[in-house]
Amino acid sequence: MSTKATIAHGRGFHFYHEALDEDGVYLELEDVEFEAGYRRVMVKIPVDVWEVIRHTAPARLDLVDTSDEELRRMVEAQVDERIDEYERAKGDPGQEALVGPFGALVFGGADEPRDEQVRQGLKYYARERERQRQVVARMKEHHVRPEGMVYVIRFDGPEGDGQ
Q1: Cα(first)–Cα(last) distance of the chain, in Å?
Q2: Interatomic CA distance for residues 159 and 163, integer angstroms
Q3: pTM, two decimal places
Q4: 21-56: pLDDT as tens digits
Q5: Which of 33, 38, 86, 88 has the smallest C-beta neighbourhood within 10 Å, fewest atoms?
């Protein structure tokens, strides 16, 4: 079973993240130039591939500015909705089998008490919020040119007139 979750793919490239790796994305390129050294690699990314990649969904950072109270309200609403769906599915083995495990990694079992599901959900989302905040902090350490800035290289002609 593959754990790759494709973000974008096309001829000669596959951009994805691993299901259990929240801190990275991966780019496989075929038939491209690269240089490798000790703890360093430089890869030429074709412009068409770059344009596809940069227009894909951005990193998940929706919890960065969420307060503890907002987080609690969000989790409680999700748990209440989950419990309602599970209760509606009871008695239908096919539906129960589909609905029951949904969200189990975040909230635990759908048949667990509401308070326990909320506790587990808060624990998960607090960790996720912290991870997102760390991503934003690392992003601020990078040097990025302002959006839309285009560099133009001029070569002076023989007369030095920019032609």
Answers
A1: 59
A2: 8
A3: 0.69
A4: 877 888 888 988 888 889 888 888 888 888 888 888
A5: 38
* Sequence spans of domains, the chain: 4-54, 68-141
Burial label for 13, CB within 10 Å (0-12, 13-18, 19+), is buried
CA distance 44 to 35: 9
Q: What is the token pair recorded at 124?
A: 């998960």
Per-residue model confidence as pLDDT tens digits over 82-137: 999 999 888 888 887 788 788 899 999 988 999 999 999 999 999 999 999 998 88
The strand pairing partners of 4, in sequence order, are 18
